[in-house]
Design goal:
Layout: H1 14-17, H2 31-39, E1 45-50, H3 53-67, E2 74-75, H4 80-85, H5 88-102, E3 110-115, H6 117-122, E4 137-140, H7 149-164, E5 172-180, H8 186-198, E6 202-205, H9 231-235, E7 240-246, H10 251-260, E8 265-269, H11 274-289, H12 295-316, E9 319-324, H13 326-338, E10 342-348, E11 362-365, H14 368-375, E12 380-383, H15 387-392, E13 399-402, H16 420-441
Parallel strand pairs: 1-2, 1-3, 3-4, 5-6, 5-7, 7-8, 9-10, 9-12, 10-11, 12-13
């Protein structure tokens, strides 16, 4: 359903997908991190990382600092010695037994296991372990040496569908499944769900962080995940009449859903930022439900149009560099270009087909070392926290807006909304105000 035109003149050579033997100042994060985050979007899940203690500890610190929330994440504490001598089955079973015995009040409804480079290299059989576990169990193969955070998230959502969603040919006409990409913050998932619900849909999201890591203070935080979708609801997703993917990375999840029920209608959007894509998104919901959008939706559309006019002069005269996950980059790039902004370079974490739709001259799969040559002639950089120290060493002042993972500098990451009419409006004002502030001080 996305109306983004494909740039046929821009093809990414294989040499530019992975053009260096090592990462220097990397922006990419591992697949297990994306998988762990996805499991946090399932209610009362016990995310279990099958690997060394350091892998899980780093991931836990990473998310704790980004979200400023307690993180529910456990690990099997495999070492290079125990990996060879004891085997993967033993480590997983012992970890689950130790965790549940240590805290008798811990009642997980799902064990969500993801592998790491160590256990994948050894070749542990994580599939057949389910026969020895009484608690519902999901596994996903996420070696560190392949893909990135975006693919780890998508593979986990796919695994949840393949291993737990029941096959059916029935459809519930008003039931809608939203499949959001990894870069969408908890508040953004919540906002998109609310929009769909305003059209009368019974809306589910997978993974659903809208009630997890969302800045809500509650008891028992950090023991089990607090996602908004339960394993029982995941089992019953097969009768969803409509499945909407937001982000190209989530197309593999939609394919898994169609195998469960070939009668499902699948609709895809590269992103829901800016007027054009949101018009398409809202028009699609209107067509399915045969109703007009609520007044507040129309009003936010008008506010976005006004924001585009107000910010056009500042953004339209400025140059930008964007780094991050592909599904995030395409939305940010197209929104800035819709008001006349010039994007000099996009540096993505991993290769994705959606990158071929981005109309920029300089497009790389790489790291911050690749981005640095473009920093000197740009007005504003949109990147993660690691770009900050590089910009401080620059010979000139360059504005920075923090997006993606990680952001250790700012509070409230989980409540930043760049999606739909409302979020797009707020993002344009944030960019314009940052440019005005930087030019004023410059």
């Amino acid at each position: 359903m996305s109306q983004t035109p494909k740039n046929n003149s821009l093809q990414i050579p294989l040499s530019k997908r992975e053009h260096k033997p090592l990462q220097v100042n990397p922006i990419k994060h591992s697949q297990p991190m994306g998988a762990a985050l996805a499991y946090m979007g399932v209610k009362n899940c016990l995310p279990l990382m099958h690997g060394s203690q350091g892998c899980a500890s780093y991931t836990k610190v990473f998310f704790t600092r980004h979200y400023n929330e307690p993180i529910a994440l456990y690990n099997t504490s495999v070492s290079d010695i125990t990996a060879v001598l004891d085997g993967g089955d033993y480590s997983i079973l012992m970890a689950i037994e130790n965790i549940t015995k240590k805290n008798t009040t811990l009642k997980p409804e799902l064990i969500g296991l993801c592998t790491t480079g160590l256990t994948e290299t050894k070749g542990d059989d994580v599939r057949n372990i389910a026969a020895h576990i009484e608690i519902p169990y999901c596994y996903v193969n996420t070696p560190d040496y392949e893909g990135g955070m975006e693919s780890g998230w998508a593979l986990t959502a796919k695994a949840l569908i393949e291993q737990h969603t029941q096959e059916t040919i029935r459809l519930s006409p008003n039931k809608l499944l939203l499949l959001p990409h990894v870069s969408m913050q908890p508040i953004e998932v919540e906002k998109v769900k609310e929009l769909c619900e305003s059209f009368g849909f019974e809306t589910f999201a997978l993974p659903d962080l809208s009630t997890a890591l969302d800045g809500y203070l509650s008891e028992g935080q950090g023991k089990l995940s607090t996602g908004a979708i339960s394993i029982e609801e995941i089992k019953e997703l097969g009768d969803s009449a409509t499945v909407i993917t937001i982000g190209t990375s989530m197309l593999i999840v939609a394919k898994a859903m169609l195998k469960k029920n070939p009668n499902i209608t699948h609709l895809h959007f590269d992103h829901v930022m800016g007027q054009q894509n949101n018009d398409n998104f809202v028009a699609t919901l209107m067509k399915i439900r045969q109703i007009e959008p609520m007044a507040h939706i129309k009003r936010w559309r008008g506010r976005l149009q006004d924001a585009m006019l107000d910010t056009h002069f500042l953004i339209g005269s400025s140059h930008f560099v964007i780094t991050g996950e592909p599904d995030m980059c395409v939305g940010l790039c197209e929104l800035l270009q819709s008001v006349g902004g010039t994007v000099d370079a996009v540096i993505a974490t991993t290769y994705s087909a959606v990158l071929e739709k981005i109309c920029v001259q300089n497009l790389f799969v790489g790291d911050l070392e690749d981005a640095m040559p473009y920093f000197e002639n740009t007005d504003l950089v949109i990147s993660n926290f690691h770009a900050e120290r590089l910009l401080h060493s620059s010979k000139r002042d360059i504005a920075l807006i923090l997006r993606g993972f990680p952001n250790y500098e700012e509070l409230g990451n989980q409540l930043k909304n760049d999606q739909l009419y409302e979020g797009s409006t707020q993002f344009l004002f944030e960019v314009a105000n940052k440019l005005r502030e930087d030019k004023h001080h410059g």
